[in-house]
Amino acid sequence: TQVRVSQAHDSACQQVAGAALYIDDIPEPRGTLQVYVAQSPHAHARILQCELDDVAHQPGVAAVVTLEDIPGVVDVSCIHAGDEPVFAQGTVQFLGQPIYAVAAETLDAARLATQHARIEYEPLPAVLTVEQAMAQQSFVLPPRKIKRGDPDTALQGAKHRLQGSLRTGGQDHFYLESHISLAVPEDDGGMLIYCSTQNPSEVQSLCARVLDLPDAAVKVQVRRMGGAFGGKETQPAQLAIIAALVACKTGRPAKVRLDRDDDMRMTGKRHAFVIDYDIGFDDQGLIEGVRFVQKVRCGYTADLSGAVADRGVLHCDNSYYLANVAVESYRCRTNTVSDTAFRGFGIPQGVMGIERAMLDIAQHLGLDPLEVRRRNLYGPGRDQTHYGQTLSNMILPEIIDQLVEESRYDERRQAVQAFNQTHRYLKKGIALTPVMMGISFTRLHLNQGGAFINIYKDGSIALNHGGTEMGQGLFIKVAQIVAHELGVGVEKVRITATTTEKVPNTSATASSAGSDLNGMAARDAALKLKGRLSEVACRHFGAEAEAIVFQDGHVQAGEQRISFEKLVGLAYLERTSLSATGFFKTPDIHFDNDTFHGHPFLYFAYGAAVSEVLVDTLTGEYRVERVDILHDVGRSLNPAIDIGQIEGGFIQGMGWLTSEELHWDDKGRLRTHAPSTYKIPSVGNRPDVMNVKLMENPAFRSATPYHSKAVGEPPLMLAVSVYQALLEAASEVVPRPAMDAPITPERVLLAKPMAGAKQACAKGLGRE
Ligand code: LUZ
Ligand code: MOS
């Protein structure tokens, strides 16, 4: 069998050896121009005058490209909102916004030439924060308000009631490979674009709109990305289009490649949220009513912000039954770079609100927060979400029980309490938090996948599908599926680059659904080919179709056997089509966007983590000493890849919540635009002990490849346990600490009690 076994990533050896080719490694076609994109120096300003003649006359400069060079539509918005011009139009809307582009023989020449631009701006007042946007009612999309039950009556009637507020920061994707596109003009007026994108079809169609070409004249190809994390779901289009505009204007290939600082200033990030909550509960900690107000910083355009903010609303429950709940979600427009998809897509932020409330409830009642979490979990008779979906395969109670036992949670919690009683300045915290993520794109039409398989007459197999490889191991998983169905070793399946020429109209590789959608589509294609080969085998063996078995590189019927290659050779001679497309659309999902009600998800992925931290309250420094994770991937297609995704997702989530801080100053300048100031987790931040285990889940059945579950995003939310453990440790010295995310050491040091904190919560010795 080729599935449900660990197989190394298909590119692991090349990647480790530095031999894997990324777009910047492709030998440049003769005459390739390098493109520098000039950026706005203001957060918000009117462009009074833009004089670029001197730029065009600088040494080495081949072309200057502006709005006037656009033959088609000026907008690159993924939802065609008309709010995202290729270059600033009349006004600049954020600091770093593209104004025009210079193409030259070298990147240095292009960049130097921009110093000769004479652009006059009239600075305008800028909206930089969520608070300013709320005050001015500055929104990219109308607010969303949803409700179930009667939260106001429940809140008024509840024995206990608490209010609070927290902020979660943005996050830069910090993929190792920054944005890059190479556009090559073709002799028939078409354009070939090599682009580091999760979404080749969208780059294709937006580029065609801007160039005023039919989609079929634009081809987009990507073999692999050096990481993406959502940052390449919509963001590549604008830069690919700028490369294509240069190629169009000059007739020469053109490359746009952002350096790290430009990438961080110019491209979108995770949405920062401000979350206010009001929660009513009984003596047992059972939630009776809750209200959330989620204020979402979206930057200057809508982009994916509607879908991201909706995910925050959908997942405000994390995994808890909220009988009476209201959520208001405000999509704030600010003069900052447009925020975009980032692994988790609004879910981590939604989860942060309810998990903070869980801790408040526990501390208010003097209970173990895990007990409060357990009591509020979805369960029998309490299994319908606030958007109307009834849960299935809800295995969180089993996951939590098993994790508590394997991590020795109870014993360690007592040890942590004992430690805190005997240590004045060092404090520990331990927290277990669950995860529940709905799997499917919330926009129905995106839930489709396509594949294309060729078998050549020597028996070799070339696999293509609509998914993109960003390091996550999608390609090996889909190859395993095809190998499994055709009964050959996975090494026999040749993996080919994603291209819009082979599979059209694909969705972004996003929503954690890459293996589900493309794996099922590839399986469909493989089964078609297997059916045709079976017919040939039936004739060859004189056997019935039911007797034909494909395995171990052979096709057999009873005692008779022939190699896969030989059978393919026979099939060719018999004039059999050895090429097939495959298709998949997710069944059984529906959602009414207006009433916010339905069954949007094919299934849910579950997991839980326990994190233990040690904090030095005199300096604010801390360590994550131990993490135990138990995560549900259904029946894993490839346990090694899945565990890698869980480790990576957790660490990336931990970075978001602990060290990665985006800081914009009062002029709207991003001051943390390089690794010198923006701190992603490094080897030194790895938890001292990190145990990751997959939950056995044989009961799961779904229209997914061999009943596997998505794994890309859910584990990111496991890192909320680190945040909670830090809050618990800080609570030893500051009652109900108001600590926004990320909890940097500075934030630990400066922690203050949240408004309304009960002094009685402070068990520690305290700072005065
Ligand atoms: N991307 C998207 C996503 O376009 N729609 C989604 O629902 C989604 N969910 C998670 C991550 N990316
Ligand atoms: Mo996404 S956040 O590109 O799944």
TrEMBL record:
Major enzyme class: oxidoreductase
InterPro entries: Ald_Oxase/Xan_DH_a/b (IPR000674), Ald_Oxase/Xan_DH_a/b_sf (IPR036856), Ald_Oxase/xanthine_DH-like (IPR016208), AldOxase/xan_DH_MoCoBD1 (IPR008274), AldOxase/xan_DH_MoCoBD2 (IPR046867), AldOxase/xan_DH_Mopterin-bd_sf (IPR037165), Xanthine_DH_Mopterin-bd_su (IPR014309)
Gene3D superfamilies: Aldehyde oxidase/xanthine dehydrogenase, a/b hammerhead, Aldehyde oxidase/xanthine dehydrogenase, molybdopterin binding domain
SUPFAM superfamilies in UniProt: CO dehydrogenase molybdoprotein N-domain-like (SSF54665), Molybdenum cofactor-binding domain (SSF56003)
Superkingdom classification of source: Bacteria
Annotated EC: 1.17.1.4
Any one GO MF annotation of this record: xanthine dehydrogenase activity
Domain Aldehyde oxidase/xanthine dehydrogenase a/b hammerhead: 17-125
Protein name: Xanthine dehydrogenase molybdopterin binding subunit
Organism: Mesopusillimonas faecipullorum
Organism ancestry: Bacteria, Pseudomonadati, Pseudomonadota, Betaproteobacteria, Burkholderiales
